[in-house]
Write a structure and sequence with these properties.
Blueprint lengths: L5 H15 L1 E2 L25 H19 L19 H11 L2 E2 L5 H17 L2 H13 L4 E4 L15 E5 L2 E9 L9 E7 L10 E7 L5 E6 L8 E12 L3 E2 L5 H13 L15 H10 L6 H28 L7 H24 L15 H7 L10 H12 L20
Parallel strand pairs: 3-6
Antiparallel strand pairs: 1-2, 4-5, 5-9, 6-7, 7-10, 8-9
Length: 418
Amino acid sequence: MANPSVEEFAAEAAAWLADNAEPLAADAHDDPAWGDGEFSVSVFHALTFEEERALLEEIKAWNQKKAQHGYHAIKWAPEFGGLGLSTAHARAYGLAERNYAVPPRHEAFGVTTGLIAPTINLFGTDEQKEQFVGQFLRTDTLCCQLFSEPGAGSDLGALGCRAERDGDEWVINGQKVWSSAAQFSEWGELIARSDPDAVKHKGMSAFMVPMDAPGLEVRPIKQMSGGSSFNEVFFTDVRIPDTMRLGPEGEGWKVALTTLGFERDHSASGSGGSSAGGSWNQLLGTARALGVTDDPVIRQRLMDAYIHTRIERYTNRRAADLAKGGTPGPEGSLGKLLWTEGMNLMSDVVSDVLGPRLIADTGEYATWEWGEHVLGAPGYRIAGGSDEVQRNIIGERVLGLPGEPRVDKGIPWKDVAR
C-alpha cells in the first residue's frame, strides 16, 4: 500500500487530533489573551518531585495515546511502532498538533526518544534494539545520560568513572553529575573508562544501565531557580552484564559523540512557538503589556530577537535537510550555538523591557516570572557541550582550521596529569 501524501496525512492527523485533544483558542499563537492562565518561560523546571513526576506521567500518557496510531514515531520504521514516513509528514503533524492543548515537553522525553533511542538503533545489537527502541519511543520507560563528571565536563574524553571486566559482567565505580531526570529514569546511557592504558578517547565503553541496580545512588541537586532537574549519580561496585554494552568495547567515545550529535540537533525547533525558555510571542506580549513598544530602542531590541529566531529557524531547517534523518553532523553545533545565543539574547532584551520588574515581584502578570528564564538560560551554554566546544567543532570540522594544541595527545589516560 502506497504511503499517504503529506496533504492526506495532515488531514488524517488533524481529524485524529480533533477527536483526541482540546483545541487552543484561535488567537493563541498570535496575540493570546494577556493576563489569563499560567505564564511560564522557565528554562528548567522549578517543580516539586511530586509535581514533576505528575507532569512526566501526563506527557507519557499523551505519547502512548499517539503511539496507538504511530504518531509518536512518524519517521521510524514500523518494526519500532512507527509509520516509516518522511520528515515532511512529521513536520505536518507537528504543525497540526501546535493547534491543540497537549502536555509540554520535558527534557526526559527528549533524551529518551530523541537521543538514546536513535543511538541504540545505530549501535545496539538486534536484541538491544528489540528490547529498548520501541519502549523508549513510546516512553513506556524513561532514560537519562550518564556522561559528565566533576572532573570531565566539556572535556568528556577525560572522564574517570571506571568499568572493569569481570567475566561476563562489568563492575562500575565512580560518579556522574548534571544527569537530567535521573531520579525519574528507569535506564541510563553510561560512558565509562574501560581501558586506562589506552589514550583517553580510545579507552571508553558505553553501556545501558538499569537505574535501580544495586550500588547505584541518585542525589538530586537543588537549583537556584527552585527545582531539581539535575542529579549526581554514584556507582559503587555496580554490576551490569556485558549484554548491556552498547557498541564495541573501547568505542564509547564514538557512541557518546553520536548521542551528543542528536542532543545538539535543533532541527525540530525554532518555530517561534512554545519552547524551553519561552518564545518570541511571549517576549512581544510582555513588551506590549508594559506599553514600551513605541520606544525606538526597545523596538530595535525586539527586532534583534525576532531576526535571530528566524535565522535560527531557517538554519535548523537546513540542518534537517542535510542530516536526512541520519546522525546530525557538525551543522548540529551551529544550531545548538544559535539556540543558546538566542536564549541569552532573549534574557538581555527582556531585561531591557522589564527593568526593575525583573527582580521585584510587583504582582503584574508576565513580569517577575521572566527571572526563571534569566537564571536558567546560561545553563544551556554548557549542556551538550559548551559554546566554546561548539565553536571548536565548527572551526575544525567545517572551516578546516587547525586543531587546538593538546598536551595529552598520544598519552595513555592513566599517565595524563589531573
